[in-house]
Amino acid sequence: MAKKEAQNLSSKSVLAAIYYLEQDEVPAAEHEKTKNQLLKTISRKNIAIFDDKNKRFTGDMPVDANISYRFMEEIRHKQSADFSDDSYFYHGLYYEDNQGNFIVITREPKDAFNEQLLSLLKILLVVSLLGIGLIYLFSQYLGKIAYDPVNRIIQQIKARDEESFYQPLKPEKSYEEIHDLIATYNHFIDRIGQHSQIQKNFIDYVSHELRTPITAMLGSMEVTAQQERSPAEYQATLRNLKQYSQDLHETLDQMMILSGAQDRFEFQSIRLDEIIWQLVEDAILYHQASINVDIQVEDTALLEIQGNQKLLSLAIHNLLSNAIKYSNNKPLAIVLGQQDGQLYLEVADQGIGILDEDLQHITDNFYRGQNTQAFQGKGIGLSMANIIFNIHAIQMEIIANLPKGTRIQLTFPRF
């Protein structure tokens, strides 16, 4: 039985008891008032009052088989009781009066209650449908807002062509996950671009570098084969061929670096100052170079780094060779120092320097500055050094001090 209906019937039972049983104890005016209240709330056909012998005392309710002896005993025991069937809600009240003890039973048809339930069900259904509709529209709106950054990323990617494929995506105002996605994509594209550049380096270097020694070898052999030569001439030709072969061997070694075929180099603990002193000694021996070395490292532990000694020697050798060549063997200055707990190496010359318009291309393969026509070179020394430094996570900064020369500073990572 619904709680609300039970409460309503309970109050109606009290009102019925007062009307039927207290008539002799209240003034007529008050009794009339009680009668009016009773008639407004319940029909007399739904009221029955029984005495202590379960005999009808008053009330206009027809005989109702649902009102049983057990129900009336329950009322007497509990002071009040409720039950319901398919048609009515019933409430019984035990009422003590000066005339005796009575049981007041009231009932309420379920039609009104069922109509209320139906109305509530309709309201709930309408509200639910409206709520689902609003939730759907709101979710579509939120989905559009959430998907819009992804859609903009897709549009940026679709707009890519061969020239712009490796350009990073531009992050826009969005939520953190989209920024992470853009950063991951940019990192992925950067790695692809690096590998693509490595492949291009390989092709460029092969076509540029192998052609000259192979042509020279073929030319030497063709000229030698045209007529009989003296033993001395054959020996000279063999020496030339040997030199060309050595050049090819050295070229192939360098190709392996530029092409990235060896992108997993063995790193070990090495002393940078030992590499510098060996390179300086070789430069003095072979080029009669004048080099001043200034070591300003207080924490000598910084001089021990992780790297590939052969590669680092080759890269720093290229820097020294350029400094010697483009300064016409003027004195060089090498500073090995530390700053903010990091090791740095600085190579400064007094040469021709680098033009501002050449700085952004100076590490490109086979690129030579506009002021280097008077010097022999292939334009690969600095590009190779740059690749090696990138492999070691070494930052290279080139500072052109025209017309006093060039200063290159290498900053080593913390180990």
UniProtKB/TrEMBL annotation:
From the broadest rank down, the organism's phylogenetic lineage runs:
Bacteria, Pseudomonadati, Bacteroidota, Sphingobacteriia, Sphingobacteriales
Pfam families membership? HATPase_c (PF02518), HisKA (PF00512)
Q: InterPro entries recorded for this chain?
A: BphY/WalK/GraS-like (IPR050351), HATPase_C_sf (IPR036890), HATPase_dom (IPR003594), His_kinase_dom (IPR005467), HisK_dim/P_dom (IPR003661), HisK_dim/P_sf (IPR036097), Sig_transdc_His_kin-like_C (IPR004358)
Q: Which CDD domains match?
A: HisKA (cd00082)
Instruction: Report if keyword Amino-acid biosynthesis is assigned.
Output: no
The residues covered by the Histidine kinase domain are: 205-415
Any Gene Ontology biological process: cellular response to phosphate starvation
- Which ranges does the record mark as transmembrane? 117-138
Return the protein name: histidine kinase
Q: Name one GO cellular component term.
A: plasma membrane
EC number(s) recorded for this UniProt protein: 2.7.13.3
Q: Which UniProt keywords apply?
A: Kinase, Membrane, Phosphoprotein, Transferase, Transmembrane, Transmembrane helix, Two-component regulatory system
User: What organism is listed for this UniProt entry?
Assistant: Sphingobacterium humi
Instruction: Give the catalytic activity.
Output: ATP + protein L-histidine = ADP + protein N-phospho-L-histidine
Indicate whether Phosphoprotein appears among the record's keywords.
Answer: yes
| UniProt-listed SMART domains | HATPase_c (SM00387), HisKA (SM00388)
Molecular function via GO: phosphoprotein phosphatase activity; phosphorelay sensor kinase activity
